[in-house]
Amino acid sequence: MDIKRITFTTLCCALSGLLFLYLIKWDWSFFIIPTLMALSVSLTNYDLISIRKKWFGILLHLSLSIILFFVTIFVTFTLSAKIDGYIIFYIGCAFGAILFALLTNIILPLQHFWSSLLIITGLSLICFPIATYIHETSWNIAPILKGRENIAIVWMTFVGLGISIGIHYRNS
Questions:
Q1: What are the b/e assignments for 63-81, b being 16+ CB within 10 Å?
Q2: Is pTM, for the whole model, over 0.85?
Q3: Using one digit for the tens of pLDDT, what is the confidence trace for 93-142?
Q4: What are phi and psi of 100, to 5 degrees?
Q5: Where are the domains positioned within the chain?
Q6: Spatial separation of the C-alpha atoms in residues 32 and 149, rounded to whole Å
Q7: Cβ distance 165 to 116 under 8 Å?
């Protein structure tokens, strides 16, 4: 397991989430989440991209991530009309993470696909409770995390961790 690469990818995903929270005032800021997430994962693992023309792999990852983001939003809002309560947030987080993992597997193959998918799904399911806890408690350390938008940084960090574990996990 390459701990340095896992840490670096996770840190870049977390910094991307912070950048999103800073730029959220922009009208088209919803494009920032899939763009920054795809760039964080692709660029920190540039040497492992399975497509010969690596720049094409990055562009493919970027464009498909944006499409999958809108698919996730559409499915989540469609299901929210039928499902009451907070369960829809868990479904949305997990659905987005699974789609992102499937997409990433095309460009950056996950070493042990099913166990990686299980780890990524598990990490995505704990994002909403952690984001809710941060929102509801008084954190004077990082006031930027106080808003409801903190789900973006929590999701990007945990899913980035799961993806990077999936990419870099090797049996010794």
A1: ebbbebbeebeeebeeeee
A2: yes
A3: 999 999 999 999 999 999 899 999 999 999 999 999 998 888 787 666 56
A4: -65, -40
A5: 3-168
A6: 13
A7: yes
